[in-house]
Amino acid sequence: MQINQAIATYDRAAVDYDAIMRRYWHIEREPLIASLQLQPGQTVLDAAVGTGLNLPAYPQGVHVVGVDLSHKMLDEARKKNVSADITFKVSDLCNLDFPDNNFDAAASGFTLCVVDYPVRALEEILRVTKPGALIAIIDYCKSRDPEIVKWQELISDAASQLGFPTDKIKWNALMDYEELIYNSKLTIEVLIDNRIESPNPFSCGCQFLLKNSKA
Ligand SMILES: C[S@@+](CC[C@H](N)C(=O)[O-])C[C@H]1O[C@@H](n2cnc3c(N)ncnc32)[C@H](O)[C@@H]1O
């Protein structure tokens, strides 16, 4: 999805986004954030933070920097009740406006299936996090079951162009985590790779815990 289309889509979705996620893609965020083992005083990147569904799960004493392209998603995120210290920034995940080695950890929910260049986005997350940093990802993804992939191929054009619900959530229904994680040659160590397989082609997902293995 082109950047302008992503902004327009998620600006439109912002007010309804949490209800849509609750209904179709609900998942508890606490285990994802807990997997980062954050310590007081650490700074974590939430990429892209959206309406801030991860935010209540961050512990007190941690500084969270939530980036997103959509001002309206960020406006919703500002309404969340949070214990951590939060800063918001409009920034493109594929071209992050932060120095190298800036963050102790990073989290990303349902986002790499939205950006046009997920390898580039993960490269940027690796650049701005410190060597050894943990990176927790939860996302929609292409199934490992070829029968389910046929359905995902069928919905792929509609998911990326029309969205579901129409004009609200748009994503790549064939988001390939095998390519992103195992074939991209990025400097990552995979600590956890959990797949959520489903006969429903909308509901296939994955959860990763990665370690930034750059020198
Ligand atoms: C499906 S939402 C996920 C929001 C949130 N992370 C969550 O877990 O609910 C995708 C988000 O990615 C943002 N986005 C899409 N492309 C982006 C990019 N290139 N850079 C930064 N944010 C982007 C959208 O504005 C939207 O808020």
Automatic annotation (TrEMBL):
Q: Does the keyword Methyltransferase apply?
A: yes
Its transmembrane ranges are none
The record's listing under Gene3D superfamilies reads: Vaccinia Virus protein VP39
Q: Which GO terms describe its biological process?
A: methylation
Q: Which domain of life is it from?
A: Bacteria
Which UniProt keywords are present, listed alphabetically?
Methyltransferase, Transferase
Q: Which InterPro entries match?
A: Methyltransf_11, SAM-dependent_MTases_sf
- Which residues does the UniProt record annotate as the domain Methyltransferase type? 45-137
- Offer an example of a GO molecular function term for this protein: methyltransferase activity
Q: Does the keyword field hold RNA-binding? A: no
Q: Which SUPFAM superfamilies match?
A: S-adenosyl-L-methionine-dependent methyltransferases
Name of this protein: Methyltransferase domain-containing protein
**Which species?**
Nostoc paludosum FACHB-159
